[in-house]
Write a structure and sequence with these properties.
The strands form 5 sheets. A 10-stranded mixed sheet has the order 1-2-4-3-5-6-9-10-13-15, sandwiched between helices. Strands 16, 17, 18, 20, 23, 25 and 26 form a 7-stranded antiparallel sheet that branches. The protein folds into 3 domains: about 1-130 and about 220-345, Rossmann fold, CATH 3.40.50.1820; about 135-205, no CATH class; about 355-580, Galactose-binding domain-like (Jelly Rolls, Sandwich). Helix 2 (about 75-85) crosses helix 3. Helix content is about 15%, strand content about 30%. About 55% of the residues are buried. It has helices spanning about 45-50, 75-85, 100-110, 145-155, 160, 165-170, 175-180, 195-205, 245-255, 290-295, 295-310, and strands spanning about 1-5, 15-20, 25-35, 50-55, 90-100, 120-125, 135-140, 140, 230-240, 260-270, 280, 280-285, 320-325, 335-340, 340-345, 355-360, 365-370, 380-385, 435, 445-460, 465-475, 485-495, 510-525, 530-535, 560-565, 575-580. Strand 1 (about 1-5) and strand 2 (about 15-20) form a beta hairpin. The protein is of the alpha/beta class and about 575 residues long.
């Protein structure tokens, strides 16, 4: 192994480790670009398969020069690195990219520029398809994991390492306590000790409108699918990871654009935890780890690269999806809900065999196929930004120690941020509308994007609406109150309902039709209920809308909003389930 400082087009040099196999070469190259340190622990296995390994610190991280520019520098820096690699005598002209989380973002960014040599990629839990729609913002709301990530990376930054006072100041801040003071103000936040890191966070926080900023390389692969590398790609995410829309969006977009062969893998894990069977408080069974079908994960990736570089047959299906559900519903020896699940394969996503099943929301909180009455009364609730609905699990990452991802019973508890005694089910809150089916008489297998269509109104200039899909267990010996298991959730900021590029403040009482998507794969067993929770906050997963209509990221005021969901025949709020025969 040797380290070189690779010069980019602007003269900045990036620390780059080169691990070469024995022998004369040249070899195909596996490239990883990361802000987390170039450990190179996989070098021996990769070299033994006949690949050189190149591991590079992103700009401004580790041993690399320059200032770290989150997301936006990775396209050009990665493309320059690919050019440099293909010019080296030890490279045979072919590059295979690997990346997890930020590393996947870096891979997708360089792929958008179609650099020389790139023939294959594995993008795991990252690689923004559209960071405004999911990943940095979601439906216009801001994902607060970005704030926690920024703070944690500031502690590990080269600037903190070089200045003991800055390091000590950051270490002294209690990030969990700071979330009780949200929204933060620039100059007085826990990042104030590192002003450029604070400014970078507020740049993202204040960029609410989906304008040219969000369409740059590094934030929006969607706009570059038509010119993306023709590399064969594997897109990997999981039900309790924030990047399911990213993986499915890139899989579909690159497939439609006719680029290289695309594959999709969706598991039941939290972010990057592909060897786990438990996510949050739920056990998905012995089949849940990716190794149950892929074997060793590195070997799976190298088999993918071998198929491309050696022209070997590749029998892998286009889509592998883990369908949650089917377990005993008992408490395991480790104390988790036994929900179970299994892997299925398919030729495409969404699955061609899934048929839409429409279920209407009714004002008695029923969820059933019956069309609502003509004059059915709407349901209204007060949404108080000072008392948001607490986050109890979900599909996010990098939010610890404030909140933990995964699936949990939707009941308040002392371990969840923002919960206070008495610890009651979230459905007991006045600002949560919990629509549910009768106990199911037969199994219902839902696989694909669940579409939630709501007719809503608010009495102010702006507000949010959230949706959660749950599998509700009946009472049993281990769970005498039942178990309301979270499957998926999302949010929409109402000012962006019609056109995210042209936000519009609302007129009090005007009815707006909104659409939210919840990708999921779950088998609802007989006796269970399908539940859809509608509300207006999910904190600290998302920032809380102050309901004032103020510009994003600078609000100091808040007001209680009266939010309404319409449920009549002319405005039939509903959920469309993609049902796959069991």
């Amino acid at each position: 192994m040797r380290t070189e400082m690779v010069a980019l087009r602007d003269g900045v040099r990036l620390a780059t480790d080169i691990h070469l196999p024995d022998g004369p070469g040249p070899w195909p190259v596996v490239l990883e670009r990361t802000p987390y340190g170039r450990a190179g622990e996989l070098a021996a296995a990769i070299n033994a398969r006949g690949y050189a390994l190149v591991v590079q610190d992103c700009r401004g991280r580790g041993g690399s020069e320059g200032r770290f520019v989150k997301y936006l520098a990775e396209g050009a820096d990665g493309a320059d690195t690919c050019t440099w690699i293909t010019e080296q005598a030890w490279c045979d002209g072919r590059i295979c990219g690997i990346g997890l989380s930020y590393g996947a973002h870096a891979q997708a960014a360089l792929g958008c520029l179609d650099p020389p040599g790139l023939v294959a990629q594995v993008l795991e839990s990252g690689g923004f398809n559209d960071a405004w729609a999911s990943g940095v913002r979601q439906g216009g709301a801001f994902e607060l994991r970005q704030a926690v990530w920024a703070f944690q990376q500031a502690i590990q930054s080269p600037e903190a390492a070089a200045d003991k006072l800055v390091s000590a100041a950051l270490e002294a801040e209690d990030i969990r306590a700071w979330f009780t003071a949200w929204p933060w103000q620039q100059g007085t936040s826990p990042l104030r000790h590192l002003p450029h890191a604070e400014a970078a966070l507020f740049d993202l926080l204040c960029q609410g409108t989906r304008d040219a900023f969000w369409k740059q390389v590094g934030l929006c692969a969607e706009g570059f699918h038509h010119r993306y590398s023709r590399a064969d790609c594997v897109h990997v995410s999981s039900w309790f990871d924030p990047y399911v829309p990213t993986a499915t969006g890139n899989y579909r977009g690159l497939s439609a654009a006719g680029r290289g062969r695309q594959r999709l893998v969706l598991g039941p894990w939290t972010h990057g935890e592909h060897s786990a069977r438990v996510a949050g408080d739920v056990d998905f069974g012995p089949e849940a780890p990716v190794e149950s079908w892929a074997g060793d994960w590195l070997d799976y990736q190298l088999r993918h690269f071998d198929a491309v570089t050696l022209g070997l047959p590749d029998p892998e299906p286009s889509v592998r999806v883990f369908v949650m559900g089917g377990g005993s519903g008992r408490r395991t020896a480790a104390g988790h809900l036994d929900h179970g699940g299994r892997w299925i394969s398919a030729p495409d996503w969404p699955l061609p065999g899934a048929a839409p099943s429409v279920w209407h929301l009714h004002n008695d909180l029923r969820l059933d196929p019956q069309v609502p009455q003509e004059r059915a009364m709407p349901l209204s609730y007060d949404f108080d930004p000072a008392d948001p609905v607490p986050t109890i699990g979900g599909n996010f990452a990098s939010l610890e120690p404030v909140a933990a991802p995964g699936s949990f019973d939707q009941v308040a508890g002392e371990n969840f941020f923002g919960c206070r005694p008495p610890f009651l089910p979230l459905a007991a809150r006045r600002d949560v509308l919990a629509f549910q089916t009768a106990p199911l008489a037969a199994p219902v297998q839902v696989v694909g994007p669940v579409e939630v269509e709501l007719y809503v109104a608010t009495d102010g200039p702006d507000t949010d609406f959230t949706a959660k899909l749950l599998d509700v267990y009946p009472p049993g010996e281990d769970y005498p109150r039942g178990y309301a298991m979270l499957l998926a959730d999302t949010i929409l900021r109402l000012r962006y309902a019609e056109d995210p590029g042209e936000p519009r403040m609302r007129v009090a009482g005007e009815v707006v039709r909104i659409r939210l998507l919840l990708p999921v794969a779950n088998l609802f067993l007989p006796g269970h209920r399908i539940r859809l929770d509608v509300s207006s906050s999910n904190f600290p997963k998302f920032d809380v809308n102050p309901n004032t209509g103020e510009p994003e990221g600078v609000s100091r005021r808040r007001r209680v909003a009266v939010n309404t969901v319409f449920l009549d025949a002319a405005r039939p709020s509903r959920v469309v389930l993609p049902v796959l025969p069991p």
